[in-house]
Write a structure and sequence with these properties.
- The protein is of the alpha/beta class and 274 residues long.
- The chain has a single domain, classed as Glycosidases (TIM Barrel, Alpha-Beta Barrel), CATH 3.20.20.80.
- It is 41% helix and 12% strand.
- The protein has ten helices and eight strands.
- The chain has a six-stranded parallel sheet with strand order 5-4-3-2-1-8.
- Helix 1 packs parallel to helix 2, helix 3 runs parallel beside helix 5 and helix 8 packs parallel to helix 10.
- The longest helix has 18 residues.
Length: 274
């Protein structure tokens, strides 16, 4: 069970009224409260997520795919804090609206290699990789990120760089993945934003043929509706991921533990209690 916290490491190089380190500190302080409810993983992204306004410049990458050390320091602090609390990080590389920072496909490839080498150099054992958030989203500029063949190539590139690292990528909110992506992935990352709870069992069943773990890591529902989606996902053999965009992802960001949405966190606690 996981929660989307991609903007826990957010920055906007165009803003002077926001302190990225204080924002990360606030999230780290709240990690034990989330974990106490049964949350086992958090999704981060090295290019964040939509903060509720356009024009943010938020990326751990330089234009050639090299990595920015100041950004990585925040990410490392979160990963280490999650590890201390027994939680996994689903670490995304690329996000729509931000990939244009990289100059070309070779820079995108270099970015994947650099992220994986950084994970290896840090010795993290609680990290899995998501190449791109909703790769088939129209907000991506680079064709290698928009197309299934490009995603499959990048997943395999990451796997060759660090054998044993679990790598995947996520599609849109319909809970579906193209065959090419599913075959290349070590586990199946899906989103249920646009999927009704009643339709979730069929989406999960359609993915069983690949014989891989099924992880929803984004569902933009709230309250009782989200709690029911979580229950349906678990009953049908998949994990479930909560995206409370209005609280955790849209500026100003809040990380209040189970008070973010009591109905959702009570459902997660119940589902993860033996």
């Amino acid at each position: 069970m996981n929660v989307r916290m991609v903007n826990a490491v957010f920055e906007d190089r165009g803003r002077t009224d926001f302190d990225p380190n204080a924002n990360t500190d606030e999230f780290i302080t709240a990690i034990p409260a989330y974990v106490s409810q049964g949350v086992l993983a958090f999704t981060l992204n090295l290019q964040g997520g939509f903060p509720g306004y356009e024009g943010a410049v938020n990326s751990a990458f330089n234009e050639d795919g090299s990595l920015r050390e100041d950004y990585l320091r925040r990410v490392r602090r979160v990963i280490e804090a999650c590890d201390r609390n027994g939680a996994v990080v689903i670490l995304g590389c690329y996000y729509q609206r931000q990939d244009q920072i990289l100059k070309d496909a070779d820079a995108v490839r270099a970015g994947v290699v650099n992220v994986v080498r950084w994970i290896a150099a840090c010795g993290f054992t609680n990290v899995v990789v998501e190449i791109a958030n909703e790769f088939n989203h129209g907000g991506f500029d680079h064709a290698i990120l928009r197309r299934p063949a490009g995603q499959a190539e990048l997943i395999r590139l990451a796997g060759r760089t660090l054998p044993g690292l679990a790598v995947s990528t996520s599609g849109l909110g319909d809970g579906r993945l193209p065959d090419e992506v599913a075959h290349a992935s070590d586990f199946l990352l899906i989103h249920f934003n646009g999927t009704k709870a009643a339709d979730i069992p069929a989406r999960i069943e359609a993915l069983r043929k690949y014989g891989k773990p099924i992880v929803c890591n984004e569902d933009q529902k709230y309250g009782r509706e989200a709690a029911e989606a979580a229950r349906v996902s678990v009953r049908n053999g998949a994990s479930w991921g909560f995206m409370h965009d209005k609280v955790n992802q849209h500026f100003p960001f809040d990380f209040k533990g189970p008070d973010d949405d009591p109905a959702v966190y009570e459902a997660i606690r119940t589902l993860t209690t033996p």
